[in-house]
Amino acid sequence: MLKKLSLAALVALGSVSTLSAQPLTEAIQNVKVAGYTKLQAYFDSNVDYYKTKYKTEALFKFAVPVSDTITFKSAYLFKWDITGKKRKIKDDETLTDGFAQLTNGKFFLQYSNGALTGLFGKIPVPTPVTGSGVGEATGAGAIALLKANGATFVAAAIDDLVLTDKVPVKGNNTYALAGIFGNEMLKTQAWAFKVNNIINYDIVLMATAKVAEGVSADVKFATAKLDKSISNKTQTYFNIAAKYASNGANATVGFIKTGKDGGTVTLDEDAPLVRVIPTEQHDNIANSADDYALYAKAGYNVDAKTNAYISAAKADKAFNYEVVAGCDHKYTNKFKIHTYVSQASAKNAKTKKDENNLEVSAAFTYSF
Which residue, among 313, 202, 220, has the nearest Cα to 264 in the 3D structure? Predict the structure, then answer.
């Protein structure tokens, strides 16, 4: 276990040891370490330099029990861009060859006592509109979850939400309430968000229904109104999809529609609410007003460890089309390989001309 601990982990463990009056060696014996390392090599035809690039990232998560109900947790996400030249990854991230940049760090206490769970500190904020909670939105604040009669209720107050790449909200308080209900046949979620000075309200409704054996239907709807200092318009988003999985085969077909006044109802482009298109270069149309998209994906388990698939999508405005052929291979339970070839066409925002782009990628991920 000691071989897995980084300097950051040892510093964190020293803090917990002081708080709990435990020797450092005893704290190290109880620590749980998890995360992943990832290397991606890809070719992008629509760039002027370094068409072949490499991206790497590593996530390290540490959990140290302080008592039966309190656990100290921390997580650190590092990213590298091995191109020999600076490259803009997101609006606020620039990575350089050979330099590891900490793009996301979390440092918080978790309280768990039966039905009640609470998080306090610099915490992950994984909601339908803020991203996955891995390398996405992080905030300084508190989240409470209460489970009762098969339902989960969530309340959150975040003072400083950062790493949202769609709508910067740093310095503005974010509040959220949610109810999550479900059984074997139907699962539903209802969320309400407010961001001071940016979003008056953002309502998200999601449901997944089991229609038959191996067949399910997903529906997502959101409506948001921005602060009057930004806009008086109401934005809407709708997505419906049907999924099939049986005997090694799987398929998905879906339809998305955004409102005439905009579909930007999320704070992050990786938000689960909108990142539903199963392609690589274009995976959502939430930035495009009065738009629609059709998408489909079909896959087959070639063997117990390999799934080959093809996917395609077409939008009215955001992009022309994209077609992908890919493969997911589980070499071991911890080591996975994802490869794809993608051909896409979209209109250049400056020249107004259609541009075709070929992208080829191979990603290797080891989880621990």
Answer: 202
Q: Note whether 203 and 189 are within 8 A (CB).
A: no
Q: Does residue 291 contact residue 263 with C-beta atoms inside 8 Å? A: yes
Which residue carries 């540490």 as its tokens?
62
- CA angle 36/37/40 to nearest 5° reads 130
Per-residue pLDDT at 349: 73
Contact assessment for residue 105 and residue 122, using Cβ atoms and an 8 Å cutoff: yes
pTM reported for the whole predicted model: 0.82
Give whole-number Cα distances, 31 to 3, 18, 61, 62, 278, in Å. 12, 15, 10, 7, 37
Q: Does the pLDDT of residue 5 top 50, yes or no?
A: no
- Rounded to the nearest angstrom, the gap between the alpha carbon of residue 82 and the centroid of all alpha carbons in its chain is 23
Q: Which residues pair with 292 in a beta bridge?
A: 257
Tokens 């370490």: give the residue.
Answer: 33
Look at residues 190, 245, 186, 185 and name the one whose alpha carbon lies nearest to residue 215: 245
Helix (H, G, I), strand (E, B) or coil at 11: helix
